[in-house]
Amino acid sequence: xxxxxxxxxxxxxxxxxxxxxxxxxxxxxxxxxxxxxxxxxxxxxxxxxxxxxxxxxxxxxxxxxxxxxxxxxxxxxxxxxxxxxxxxxxxxxxxxxxxxxxxxxxxxxxxxxxxxxxxxxxxxxxxxxxxxxxxxxxxxxxxxxxxxxxxxxxxxxxxxxxxxx
Length: 165
What we know:
Layout: H1 18-22, H2 34-44, H3 68-86, H4 89-113, H5 119-164
């Protein structure tokens, strides 16, 4: 999704300038996965990210509160949510393609067994087209939001450069 290798999405240790972090507050969930959300948002916005290696000692007592299924589903939902905000076709296109393939498989099966085109095949084809079109509209909305956000950064940079001169 980020087109950038994310080495440790769940460590929770992040150093981010306050204005950048504050610009993602509207995306933050009510759980402890805010580092994941901010990291993905920063990377998708094209902000620079630098990884610094740290040494973490092994846990001496207790055990992790992260549960593979409960928290895994939560992390997956956060990643899908961020992906639909920044790159919607990465979600809509595979779903649309899968529906189209299912329509082809269903059509082949029904043609071989019944010798006809069935309503289920039509439903799957139409669903794939609708999902694809929704993805295109979402991509346009995302692009408009991005275009509105990026010039503000450039304007602020130019204004601060003008003040220096």
